[in-house]
Each structure stands twice: as C-alpha cells, then as structure tokens.
Amino acid sequence: xxxxxxxxxxxxxxxxxxxxxxxxxxxxxxxxxxxxxxxxxxxxxxxxxxxxxxxxxxxxxxxxxxxxxxxxxxxxxxxxxxxxxxxxxxxxxxxxxxxxxxxxxxxxxxxxxxxxxxxxxxxxxxxxxxxxxxxxxxxxxxxxxxxxxxxxxxxxxxxxxxxxxxxxxxxxxxxxxxxxxxxxxxxxxxxxxxxxxxxxxxxxxxxxxxxxxxxxxxxxxxxxxxxxxxxxxxxxxxxxxxxxxxxxxxxxxxxxxxxxxxxxxxxxxxxxxxxxxxxxxxxxxxxxxxxxxxxxxxxxxxxxxxxxxxxxxxxxxxxxxxxxxxxxxxxxxxxxxxxxxxxxx
Length: 345
Hints:
Layout: H1 25-33, E1 54-58, E2 61-64, H2 65-75, H3 85-111, H4 118-132, H5 135-145, H6 149-171, H7 178-187, E3 193-194, E4 197-206, H8 212-230, H9 235-242, E5 253-258, H10 264-272, E6 282-284, E7 287-297, E8 300-301, H11 304-334, E9 337-339
Antiparallel strand pairs: 1-2, 1-9, 3-8, 4-5, 4-7, 6-7
C-alpha cells in the first residue's frame, strides 16, 4: 500500500526526500525521509497528551499536533518561495484528512490482529538507514523534531502493520492485462518521452560542514583514491572499498541520471564527459567525488517493451489507491471522528 502522508504548518528548512513508502502515523513519512541507526529500544507507552496538542480524535484515539505540524512541513520541503494562505489552508485540510484515514486503517489492522515480527522492524529500519546514507543527519532531525528513538521504532512497526493489512485484506491481487498496458502507452505519448540521461558511477568521500581540518582530511583521502585508480585499481572495486555514497555496494553504480538530479558540479562534468571516461576530483557541498560515465541516452521516446513494467506499476498503484480510498471511506462512515483543528491554529 502506499501509506498516508503527512505535512506541517509552515515550512522550516530543506528536508531530504525519502526513498521509501510511508505507512502511517508520524513515521509513515519519516520512514520515507531518512534513516536512523537501527534502534532496538522497546516502544514506550504513550504519555498523557494535553488537549491543545490534539488536532483530531478517531474513535477516541488522538491525532497529535506535533505529527500534523511535521507532516505539513514535509509537504513543503525544499520550497524556496513563500506559501500563500489559500494553499496552506488547503494543504492543512488535506493532511488532517490523511492522518485521520491513516489512524482508521491502523485501528482496523490492529483489530484484525495484523502483526509484524521484530526482525521485520529491524530490517526496515536498517533499509532506511542504508537508503539515507547519513544516520547522523537524520538523528539530528529527529532530535530537533522531538521524536525519540522508541517513537521512531514504534512508527516503523505501525507502517509495516498498515502496509501488510492493506496488501492482504484491502488491495488484494491486482492484475492487469497486456491490452491495458498497451492502451495506456498509446494514449499517453508525452509520458513516454525519456529525458537525456547518462549512466553514472561515483566514488564519494563525505565532507560535511565542520572544522576545516576534517575537510582537508577528506580531500587527502579522495586524492589517495584517485592515485590508486591511476595505478590500475578497478573503479567498482574502489567504490566498494572506499566510497561513502549510497551506491557503494553496487560498485558505485548510480544508474541513469538526468539533468537536475545531481549536485551542479557533478552534473556538469557527467554531461560533458565521454563514455568510459573517469573524472578528476569534483568538490561539492557534501564532499568530494570521482565519477565515471557509461552509456549516454539522448532524449526520445521510450519503447513499449522498456516502459511496460513502469506502466504496470503506475496503473497498479492507481487501482490500489482507488480500492484503499473506497475501503477507508466505508470505515469512516462508521467511525467517530472529531476534527479539532480550527482556522489558523
């Protein structure tokens, strides 16, 4: 299932997008945003909550203002321009309904006895960590947001419970015929245009903002790696051995990247290089990079055979969302829902 997202009142700072599927509760989104070092702490029982900290109740269970505010914030992540009153009001209303829907689904899953094992929670937390790349940054984000490690783990479990319940009892086995895929392909030609891209591999040495000496050490490290490459070390082997990047385990292979998807210095080099060429050291805000360019693809139509599975995933997700929406609407009619958010509060 594609879990319900959340967002917050006023955008604060740039948050890194997450590579995962949100599930429910506060961490449905957080799980998608980032990574915390795998947590083994036991989930703590909820503490009493003041009425002012509750934005809704679902069958007596509170939806917390903190969760709501964070969810609205995430909706506006990375926005440089200001947010108008009408847009903010619409987003807040939508977020509140999604949080209510999520709570309804979680309550239903719990009443049906849907459970996940501790090892599944551990594996999901570790998966998020590997996808995020920097556990320290997300740990700081959680601290700033007032979220404990135990709450994080509890919400990872909640996400998995809701996902399993929806997969097994709501969405079911969704099947599409080949004709459905071909029809979508033929009727949406603009979606079937592939932007210019290049296959990129990288070795990255992370050098976040900090004491100048630490960045100098990172520079020395990347220079040493470059010397080894010039001496004949295989690029993929070097990436597995030395890189701090999330694709290190794949030998540095980041797949096909498009313009705008990488830091500007990396992007400029990647689209100017020739296939098989290895760059010199490239410096960005996050650290130092050495990149290698593979196949180059010009902009053009994607063949049906190549687009088939992407179309299948899109249509399946759409059908799945419709089934989930209908199911939640039916539960909502029978639920006791109190919306306590008022105006700009």
